[in-house]
Amino acid sequence: MEEATKLAYEAYDKHGIAYMLLCGLAADPENKHAIELIEKEYANWEDNEYVKNVLKSIYAIETNYPGNSQNARITILETLKSIPESLEFLGYEMNELLFSSLYEADFSYVENLFNEPYSKRKLLMPVEIYTDLSQNQICVLEKSTIEQKMMGNDDETKNISFPMGHPVVNQLYVAHPLTQNHYFPFETYEIELIKDRIHEFCELMECLGATSISICYQQHSEKDSEHNNNSQVVLNGKVNTLYQAGASINQQETNKFMQSLGQSLNLHQTYKPFQKPFIPNNLIWYPQEPTWQRLVEQRLRGSITSHTESIETSKTQVINNESLSEIQAELQVLLTNAKLQISTATSEKLKQHDNVVLQVHVEFAPLSSLGETEYQEIPNQVSELTENEQEYLEMFQETLADGNGSITNSSRKLLSKFANRLGITAHRATQLEQMYLPSFTTEEKEFIEEVRTVIDEDGELTNMSLRLLYKLATKLGISEQRAEELINIAT
After folding, report:
1. Helices (H) and strands (E) in the chain, counts
2. pTM for the full model?
């Protein structure tokens, strides 16, 4: 502690003069010490409006220390709204100091945005000027700050990316779960993610020697699971819908969603493959898709000539239905502050719809017709790991060894934090762990990934999610006892 600060604090302790306290706090080089002292002394000066407001101002500024930028942004903004604009101390305008500190906190926050857990940066809303930063679901940034982050780094993966014509003020955006820096408008994000996933699957199939790919889909609700009451729709240029009695209460929203799918996806494609099967570079979804990997193994052996892949839209729906009401409430506050209302398109998207299962049917050319009859080895994915991924895998191996083959809840939390610090998503961490656990079958790996996805999205396994997981285990040919063992491993 600097000598001047020490002398000021000693004078305050001896004489109780507020000016000495304020001078000591202003000069204190230790943020957390200043914060603790203000929290201790604040009640003694609540009746003195001037001292109280200066204390609040210094407190807000001191919260802006490394690793606390988000809390600092909230505290500084709330303080700016509560103190007089004319407040001065030691010849400095406190409003000016607070705005400067808010800018610094903003810069620090956005610089480290991609180190935040996905759940904390999943929803992003640009605003012209801050009015409220207390949201739990929505990350709010001034548009000018976002625009700096769009071009501030030579490494494109560290810049925020939007579709052409964006970002737009007061528009809600959703982050891609795997391409961490790319954001889609909230109203179209789900369709865009499904298209992205489907297009990658089709690209992979084309590279494996597909001769044709066709898509159909079916609505799949919880009621369907119990009664097998599905309504199949074939994509043939328009949506032909056949709905049965007892349809979901979310049927209207599901209808619109299915209509959008029909308008957005390629319905049927044919190919004339001419080269031996291979795995293309830069695949994003493939490392997270155990069934795709199993299909590649079968195809490269030459043992498969056709395949139907089921792709559930619920697995691409990064915003679960349970959080929609909270998102709507937060959005309403932000837009009300801007004297705006939630648009019709956004309001529609905030309504729930049922899960839709896309059936992608692929026909392959025989390997013999491609001049390739020998079994093709799959490239070793471990050799292609980044330094951070290798570091995470080493940590996972050590944790597993220390736990005699199992991972405790506390160890799992530490691994998650370690992955976040390394910039590794929860999905990628699961994939890395599965590389080290060859004793699991492909179905068991898929089940473990689904368990961790539920935990990542909901924070815990509820009775409902456990029932659904056990149903999934049955479909995958996994016994109830083995499913319980896998759930314990995953959690």
Report:
1. 20, 11
2. 0.69
